[in-house]
Amino acid sequence: MDLTFSIWPLVAVLVSLLAAVPIMLSNKQPNLREFWTLMAAVVKVAIVVSMLPGVLAGGGYVFTLAEVVPGVPIEFRVDAFGIFFALIASFLWLLTSIYSIGYMRALEEHAQTRYFASFAVAISATIGVAFSANLLTMYLFYEMLSLSTYPLVTHEQNAEAKSSGRKYLTYILGTSIGFALPAMLIVYTLTGTLDFTVGGILADKASASTLAVVLVLFLFGFAKAGLMPFHGWLPAAMVAPTPVSSFLHGVAVVKAGVFSILRIIFHIIGPDQLAQADIGWIVTTLASVTLLVASLIALTQDNLKRRLAYSTVGQLSYMVLGAGMLSAVGMTGGILHIGMHAFGKITLFFCAGAIYVAAGKKYISQMDGLGRQMPVTFAAFLLGALSIIGLPPLGGFISKWKLVLGAVDGGQLTLLVVLLVSSLLNAAYFLPIVYRAFFAEPPAEAASGIKEAPIFCLVPICLTAFGSLLLFFFHDTFLRLAQLALGIGG
Amino acid sequence: MNSNLHMYILAAPLLTSFFLDIFGRKKQGLIAPFVLGSLALSSALAFVVLGRVLETGPISYTVGAWLPPWGIELLVDPLSGLMLLLIAVVALIASFAALPWVRKELHDRVHLFFILYLILVAGLMGLVLTADAFNLYVLLEITSITTYGLIAMGRGRAPLSSFNYIIMGSIGASFYLLGVGYLYLLTGTLNMADIAQFLPALQGSFALGTALAFVLVGLWIKMAFFPLHGWLPMAYSQAPSGAGVMIAPLMTKVTVYLMLRLMFSFIAPGFSMYETDLQSMIVWAAAIGIISASALALGQRDLKKMLTYIIVAEVGYMVGGAWLINEPGITGTVLHIVNDALMTLCLFLAAAAIAYRTGSLKFENLTNLYQKMPLTMAAFTVGAFAMIGVPPTCGFFSKWYLLLGGIEAGQWGYVVALVFSSLVNAILFFRIIEYAYFGKGADDHGHAAIERNEAPLMILCPLLLVAVALIVVGLSSGPLVENLIKLAIPAGFLG
């Protein structure tokens, strides 16, 4: 990979961070404030996209900010894996920003300035995670993401929101300081570097047992990925306003966790070292258990957002599972699922928010017949659900198919069973919602006059749902990026 | 080139204090310019001297031209140069914030406060400069006595706390003096470098062990190393805000420096002391101290009280780090002296600002403070993040080195203690952040709007400056360690 020195990675990270300042200053003028948000979002997408051709051609961009520890600077590097995540995050942030405006204004939420400013900092941190050149830089932005999303979780400021905020921080900060930080220091002690390198940096540096310890510390240390038993924060975080749940807890935050774990497996420990030490099973076992248990819990949830949250916990483990398979096609599937799930899940959350805005309903049991009043929303919901279940012709099929191939390739039949059972469970917790909405009789006292959500909400929903569909046909770019990230063929 | 430049760093505050004694009462208007002017001069000179030391090597000064080992030697090497700069700058920044408080509370005793304040600053500078073990005792007493006076100027139970501190401080000083007495009996000299020459021959001597034990315990009492910390939370939380902003960041850190200095000169690597379990025991004691102090901090319901227990925990960080006796450990300790001084300064300035406006630092009274004092709370949050150790604030990087040292030395107890304390700090500070930012939804739902009422600029500006410095120092940790701290550590302790 030939690297070009460039300021653009830094700008891509900073643009929304800096936008937080005018956002806070335009406290009294909502329209100007939202202009800054949208402006930053557009600029961010543009910068990320502008760097894509270079990366696809096998290049990369690098920017060093400061040398803080010998051998480990705070450094940005745009590589295939990073830009893959950044593309998804920045594009979906743009849509979420539009959606947020509709949602927050329709509900006349309080403290909107704090909300939009925190959001801007959070997306900055997300792109920072994506573009980090080494583990220290990634840790820095990972923490920044945790801290900037805390005000969003606690947004309601009531007792429930505060206790969820506490739970959120306890899980996220507790694991990152308690597990990830020591693991990072152990790696640094062993190697003297923390640079992300294709194939890992721990080759011949650590015994199998040390590797296992480091691996487990990292798997649990990045609790944003929601591996059990450190998943409890995600359902709790659902008290946040729905755009937060959809973007941060459907895309940015949770994927930053998975992204971090995948970075560790691919570029710090290295798949080959994992295979040699024969500890890939730790990853796949943890992921399989989480995947099945989370899907089962999802079945029991009546609160739509909580059901989606448990579904997210399960789906995140697909990605980790793919990485743990250690076969080329399985790992590719794991990476691809980051993108496919992002589009599907954000659609579902957007729909949940739209239902709340338009009808004020949070519980699935109240949604009987609602689909007739909100056909567009529920049609989009169906598309999103089908993508996550993994049916063609939707994006989710592509990644799940790769995962299945990976399981077959590696001769890991148990994993194959896990994947199939889980897909059935996915169908079991999603499809009844759509069925009730369209075919169940609405309750007699149902309020008439429920209409679709405001246009600001509806347009992003349609775009992401349509995106899920498009990704089935046009996923070559993503596939190529995933292969570049793994340093294989293509 | 004036090689005695460093003497003026110390002389500026000392002479100004005499000046204030004579003219201060009549001409109150002169106090502020003279205090600030002298400390600004000290800071500027300290900066120049540090640059010069880094360029040309250590500068030695013999007081009254009596040559060492009989005369008193003052020595500026990279380590003491760094400490001089730190003391001068922190004292300068703190004095800005002290001024409004002193004017509000002490009325016609303003000059008395600043006389003690400046003598204390001069004493601290003397402590880091001196290369004479007995002179060190004298200066230790000077700093302690001025501190007693400053603390007793507070309201309420402050005099009682000060008295408590006097008892503990005197015991500490006596221990140190006894230790130095033993050393003098053994070696016949008081100059540190001179003592160090005789020590290899005395290895294994029981008397030497006793001497060093007395010296160490004496210093530990003075720095409030757990479980010898009892006096600190009381004294520092009762101290008047104006004095606390300077005493809290500097006193314990300078004492840690003294311990390092003694370790560097008396306990060269390879000294038999290392082969015993003593080193490991001290690190374990530090680990237990960190955990206990953090747990005690959890029990506090008053911001300042909580901060004092955090100081005690931080002392454990540094003592433990120093006694890891490996490169990252000592690097981390020196870096943490600087960082912790700045973090404590930031948090105490924020506490002073809040106390100035609200009068109380009880957690319940901090509710929705964000709306009243947004800038103060923003700076407080930065300080809090630094204490928790969130990158890129400076607190993260010293913790990084300390943890690295712990891992390298295999001292897992210490590593766990550091991580535990970071987590406790996160709980401590987010509890406050929750009160301040997410209090009861008295918000823009149309409830009683809370008026903006920021702290006076004299407190606010230094506070914001320090908050920014926490990030800037954090981002420049790399050069700071490479170009300064590495040079400050004797070669035997490196690599």
Summarize the structure.
Chain A has 490 residues and is mostly helical.
End-to-end Cα distance of chain A, whole Å, is 14 Å
Cα-atom radius of gyration of chain A? 21 Å
Kindly state the percentage of residues in helix of chain B: over 70%
Q: What portion of the residues of chain B fall into strands of 2 or more residues?
A: under 5%
Helical residue percent band of chain A: over 70%
Average pLDDT reading of chain A: 87
How many helices of chain A? The count is 19
Spans of chain A with pLDDT under 50 lasting ≥5 residues? none
Quaternary structure classification: heterodimer
Q: What's the number of helices of chain B? A: 19
Mean pLDDT of chain B: 86
Largest sheet of chain B: 2 strands, antiparallel
Task: Describe this structure as you would to a colleague.
The complex is a heterodimer of chains A (490) and B (495). The radius of gyration of chain A is 21 Å and the shape is globular. Chain A has 19 helices and 3 strands. In chain A, helix 7 (208-221) crosses helix 10 and helix 9 packs parallel to helix 12. Chain A has helices at residues 8-25, 30-56, 80-106, 112-131, 135-153, 159-191, 208-221, 233-236, 242-269, 271-277, 280-300, 304-325, 328-359, 370-373, 375-389, 395-409, 413-439, 455-473, 476-486; strands at 2-5, 59-69, 72-78. Chain A is mainly alpha-helical and 490 residues long. Chain B has 495 residues and is mainly alpha-helical. Chain B has a two-stranded antiparallel sheet. Chain B is built from 19 helices and 2 strands. Chain B has helices spanning 5-23, 31-56, 78-106, 110-129, 133-152, 158-187, 192-198, 206-223, 231-238, 241-266, 278-298, 303-323, 327-358, 369-372, 374-388, 394-409, 412-438, 457-475, 477-488, and strands at 59-62, 73-76. Chain B is globular and about 70 Å long. The interface between A and B is large, with 38 and 36 residues.
